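The step that takes the researchers longest sounds almost clerical: writing a folded protein down as plain text. Below is the pair of lines this work produces for a single protein:

——
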Amino acid sequence: MLGASFLRKTSLHDYAFTIAPFERGGAIQGHARFGCRAQAVLKRISYSLAFSISLLNEEAILLSGSDGLSSQGRNLAKLLDFFGVSWRASTLPALLSDQNINGSGLRVLCSSDHFAALIADLSRDSDRARRWREQIHSVFVYAGDDIAALDKLVKTRPGPCSGGFAISDKLPEFCGIMCGIRIGEDDSQVNLVFAAQEQSTEIISSDRGPVFLKREYEGVPAFLSSGARIIDIEDDLPDGIFDVRHHVLEAIPPVLYLKWAFAATCWSAPERSGCLVIDDPLLRPTYGFVDFRELLSLMRRYKFSTNIAFIPWNWRRSDSGVTRLFRENPEYYSISVHGCAHTRAEFGSADSEHLYAKTRQALERMDQHAAATGLAHDRVMVFPQGVFSEAAMRILKRTDFIAAVNNDTVSFDRNPRPITVADVWDTAIMAYDNFALFTRRYPWSGVENFAFDSLLGKPVIIVIHHGFCRDHCIQLIEFMERLNALACPLIWRSLGELVKRSCRQRALSPDVTQIEMYGKELLVENLSDRTKQFLVRRRESNPSLINEVFAGGRHIAWNGSDDQIQFEVEVRAGENVTIRLHLHELGEVKERVENLNDKARTMLRRYLCELRDNYFHKLTSLSSNGH
C-alpha cells in the first residue's frame, strides 16, 4: 500500500467523525434486542461508518523533497486548509515503498519534477504501478521551476500569452460554474504553454495553446498546469480587491481541481445565490434612468432580483405606489440601509459615539419608513462611497444589523489592517471584529470574476448606479443574460435572504453537517429525507459579547473557545430553522443634536445629488447620443 511515513495534517479536527448523534436517536439495550428500531439504528451506524470511510479516503498527499515542502507546496497546503481538506506530506521514496496503509482514492499534488521522477519509478516497477492504479484517484501537477521535467511529461513551448484564456465546456463536472468562461487579456505572467496532443484534454487554453490539461499516466488521470506558481492566499491585497484575471494560472487550476477532487469533504456553499444592488435611488416612479415598473418587468423576463440601497434620510419621501409595488413583489424587490444621510465618509470616523448615534438614527429612520409605508427592510448596511472604519464595524455589530455589504474591503482608518487573498476568498470578510462584510462587484469586473466568486462559495452581489440603466437597461440585461447563462444557475434572492443563507458547510456523516456561520442570522435548511444534526460554528474573538443564541425562537446552549462560538441544532426532514445571535447592548450614548447648519448642508447635498441624477446625467446622455 502507499505511504505511511507521512507528516499528517487534517482539517477535520474541529468535529471528529462520531456516531454519537445516532446513539441519541435510540441506543440498543442489553444483549442486542433486534427489533425494528434496533435494526434501523444499526443500519444508520453502518451507513455512517461507510460514509466516514469514504470521506477519509478523500485525502490529499503533497509530495515534498527531503527538506520538506517547497514554497509552492506550502501554498498548496494553505489552499487545502482553506477548503477544509485533510492532507499529508510525503517524500517520493515513502510514497512508493510503504505497504502498510489501507486506502484508495488518494489525491496527489506535486510539482512536475516530483511527478516526472514518480512516473519514471512506476515504469520500472510493475507492482508499484499496479498499486498506483488501485490507490490513487487523481494527480494535480504544476510546472515548478524545472521546465525540462515538465517537458518529459508533456511537450511544451515558450509563451508569453497575450490574447486571454478560454475554459473548456467539455468537462462540466470538473469545471463547474467556470465551464465555458472566457477570460479577457490581463497581466498574468504565462510564459509556457503545452503543445497540443491527441492524448490530452484541454481545460484552459490561450492564444498560443493549452495551459491546463488532463491526461492519463499509468491509468490515473493527471491534471497538468503550465504555471510555475501556486497563489499564496496569505498575500496582502494592497487595494483589498482580488481580480482573477490577474491570477489565471496560479488560482484557477488548483481551485478547480480541489473543488472537484474533494467535492464530498471540502467546504461548499449550500446554494449559489445572487442579488443586484442599485445604490441611492429614491422610491419614486423613476429615479435617474431607473423606471421601477420597467425594471420589474425586466426582472420577471430575465430572472433576477434587485435590492435598492435606500438612504434613511429619505424616509418621508417615498411614493406610495412604488412602495406598494415593492411590497407586492418581494421575490424581486427589496431595500437595504445605505448609510444614514449619505454625507461624506459618514461611517469612516473613528469616533464611536458619533458612529453609534448615526447608526441608531439610520435604524430609527428605517423603522419609521417601514411604519409609514408597510415596506420592511433588510438589516444590512451598504456604506456610502464604500467608506467605513473599524470602529464603524464594531458599532454595527452591537446593533440590529446582521451584516454589511461593500465594494471596498480596506477600512478608511489611518493605518488600516491588511486584507489578504484568503480574507476576500472567504464567504464574507470576518477581519473586522468578526462582523461579516460581504463583497460586491461592478459589472465591468467581468463575468469571470463573479463565476470564480461563486466557485469559491461566495454569493454573487452586483452593484450598479442608475446610469447603468440608461437606454432602457440594455447594458444591464446583456450582463444579466451572461450571468444567467453560467453553467450552474444562480438563485436570485433579496439581499437579506442572501446574507442569511450564506455559509460554508460540509458533511461529517449522513446525519451530521458542519456549518460555518457569517452573518448574525443564518437560515439552516434540511433538504434531506431524514432528521439531521447541524454543528454550527462562528468566528468570535470576544465570546463574552454574545448574550443569547436563538434557533427558531427558542434559546439554545452554546460555548465559546478558540476565537469562535459553537452550538448544535437539530432540524427535521424538509424543514428549516433561523438562527439569531443577540449581543449585549451598548450602553447609553449621549444624544448629539444636529445643528441647523448641518441639517441645511445635508439637505442641500441630497437635493443636488438628485438634481444631478435626474437631470444633468440625462441631459449629458442625450448630448452624447447626438440629441
In short: The chain has three domains: 7-261, 273-493, 503-583.
